[in-house]
Amino acid sequence: MSDQTAANRILIKGGKVVNDDSMFEADVFIEEGVITQVGKDLLIPGGARVIDASQKLVIPGGIDTHTHFQMPFMGTVSVDDFYHGTKAALAGGTTMIIDFVIPQKGESLKGAFEKWRGWADPKVCCDYSFHVAVTWWNQQVKEEMEELTKDHGVNSFKMFMAYKDVMQLNDADLISVFRQCKEIGALPMVHAENGDIIADTIKQLKDLGITGPEGHAMSRPECVEAEAVTRASTIAQQVNSPVYIVHVMSKSAADAVVQARRRGVVIIGEPIAASLGVDGSHYKHQCWRHAAGYVLSPPLRDDTSTPGYLMDLLANGDLQLTGTDNCTFSSEQKALGKDDFSKIPNGVNGVEDRMSVVWEKGVASGKMDECRFVAVTSTNAARIFNMYPKKGRIAAGSDADIVVWDPEATRVISKDTHHHAVDFNIFEGMKVHGVPVFVLSQGQVVVDDCQVHVTQGSGRFVPRQPNAPHIYSVIHKRDTIRVPEAVEREPYKGSVCVVGDLQVAAQTTAHGQSTTPPIPSSASADDRPISRHGGRDLHQSGFNLAGTQVDDNIPKRSEKRILGPPGGKSSIIF
Predict the structure, then answer these.
(1) pLDDT at 564 exceeding the cut of 70
(2) What is the pTM of this model?
(3) Distance between CA 231 and CA 224 in Å, rounded?
(4) DSSP annotation string for 154-194
């Protein structure tokens, strides 16, 4: 037996295996990057490394569905590149990330995808995949979406309802993209904010002299997020497509997701580590750098009960999974907006701390159990993006992306100890329970007794097939049973108005006589019909802004005192 073969064999012994649907005591044996046995009293070949998991949980590696590593944005590039970003992910127990390819308006989607692959492949330390953004729309984009899905393993496309004149799509284009996603079996994802309202509000705030980070939150209130969620879910319902709402940040937006689900919309809501762990009170901090460090879109909310509210919905299933929107910028980069909040690069950290924050705010607080924790940090993402059970499960045949998790250990989050390339951490000073003691990626130990040992470029691109059953089985069924049907009836044989000259067809009685006289399209105020009382017929008002009226040719009558008004004299004595 070679030393290399022995190194590729690992036995995790004495732990409690936790999947999204079960917990049980078992050993886990890994060989050549794949889980081959799960159970008790396993027959193990010699030479395997043994990891003691006593008093610890053995869980599937986390999947972060929302990162922006090395992203060009607002005139600069996020400092966590694909090396530092994936290293931080592994340090926190996340073994796969799904990043975003974001083409410029007019740029080829396929060309942008290949460019992003060129950035990522030499640097990633863990498995990864890509969503692709649709920032403009025409026939070329439609065809490239199909090609990316069929040939390049992309099964999700993101649209922006914000960032007017940069990435925002209008409703007509959103409908077209949703239809194309459904046609090719991809999942439409939406950044839900009303970009037109935001652009107008930014201008108003600047006119009032508001330039600090607090202006960012003021310009993007909850209502513009909730409105966009409702609009996106309505489009999805009409098209009969699924929809995925990225970074749910407010109570109102979360409620809109819940209401859409009650209507039967296949909608997925993704809160992020930031919205689950901190709130918008930081925008009022006296230190400009501190306040700017929390700027992201949609923003954190002033209501300090928002993180707990979102965690409640995540725990009970109304929200489905967690990402981070990890997009980090240094102090110098944030300072691009020192005199104008609309120029502060949007983005925060989260990929390293997501698992611990969700454990602290969810499990340690008694809001969710361990199985639900696994579901919202790993398994649901694997199902939704069609990677299950290779990802998101501890079972024979699954990839050996595994975390040995100590539920009782604690750590204090800090920029001084994290593995990001950024000089700020939005969770600074937060004490959290739940620590990844060992992390395995592709069967290799990359976190060994809390020490991080990664290899740049060792990660793999994971292609994802379309028509994820977890999403599209319901959609396809509805297509077969909800086919619109025409009503069979006798054809209409009556008269029809001639639209060209606005001639209204006469309504006729049973004897064939007209009940209303036709109104010529060229009728002036003098041509309008007179009532039988000699005055204007109020049902045929001849009001004319030019001043002429239908009864101008009738001499004015002299005053006449009405002694017996219609309805009779009043007997009331005043």
Answers:
(1) no
(2) 0.87
(3) 11
(4) --EEEEES-STTTTBPPHHHHHHHHHHHHHHTPEEEEE---
